[in-house]
Amino acid sequence: MSSHLGENLRLLCSHYRSIAQVCRKLGLNRAQFNRYLSGESQPTAYNLKKIGDFFGVETYELGLPGEQFARLIGARGNHVGAPAQQDALQTLLQPLRDHSGDLTRYCGYYFEYANCMSVPGTILLSLVHMREEGGVFMFERQERQVLSSGGQVEESARCRYLGAAFQLQDRLFLIDYESLTFNEVSQTILIPSFKSRITRLNGLKTGVSSGDRRTPACTRVVWEFLGTEINRISAYRQVMLYAPDDPRIDPEIRQILAHAPVRDGLFEVE
């Protein structure tokens, strides 16, 4: 990246109330961003793309000579460098973000145990990663509907869910969508841990079966904390379907999942 980056960034930032506001929206450290502006240091490729995406310019354009970059911005009018208009969905969710608690202590990897909605009578173990990015708590859930039978492992489906997490009052709310087929939105509600060390989180999950009828379903769910750093390959090998009596499933988890999730029309969780 050329020496013109700082000058061009200052031009783009002039469309906002302050540099601090830009840093908050970008999720970047103010001191580090000031070094970009002064030319003392250069952004990583990742941060450079984040900056370009935020302002609506290509990364290579940020390195153009100042006069050429200014003409480029002027030619594009208000579409470049001006604060992005918040769309209706962002406006709807902003109060939810504002009132959400701090989920930092819940960041890390989990095994999720749930009764499989698509293959009744089996337990689905998924791998979940919750993280914080730019002040937003997001998570990714990996599923494989794999069942080991007679020494043979057959894979019927793989799913990847992406979602956002919120803490409202004394519950954790997680909303996600299936990012490979875009055919499902699911919600998980967990009871937070009040212990100094997180081990397991219990709750309920709603979604639909991947079968032809797309049947709505609800199941109890257990999240088992693995840590903030794990061997992902080793963990992913365990992501599959299990028989309810499989000895690899902890008896306590098996007992929780065996309880009916709906009773007298109300959800009940321990």
How would you describe this protein?
With 270 residues, this protein is of the alpha+beta class. The protein has helices spanning 5-13, 19-26, 30-38, 45-55, 66-76, 88-99, 232-237, 251-258; strands at residues 108-115, 123-133, 136-149, 152-168, 171-178, 185-190, 200-208, 216-227, 241-242, 262-263, 266-267. Helices cover 27% and strands 34% of the residues. Strands 1-2-3-4-5-6-7-8 form an 8-stranded antiparallel beta barrel. Helix 1 (5-13) packs across helix 3 (30-38).
Structure summary:
The protein has 270 residues and is of the alpha+beta class. It is built from eight helices and eleven strands.
Secondary structure: elements and pairs:
Layout: H1 5-13, H2 19-26, H3 30-38, H4 45-55, H5 66-76, H6 88-99, E1 108-115, E2 123-133, E3 136-149, E4 152-168, E5 171-178, E6 185-190, E7 200-208, E8 216-227, H7 232-237, E9 241-242, H8 251-258, E10 262-263, E11 266-267
Antiparallel strand pairs: 1-2, 1-8, 2-3, 2-9, 3-4, 4-5, 5-6, 6-7, 7-8, 10-11
Helix pairs in contact: 1-3
What are its keywords?
Lipocalin; 2 domains; 270 residues; 434 Repressor (Amino-terminal Domain); single chain; eight-stranded antiparallel β-barrel; elongated; alpha+beta; disordered C terminus
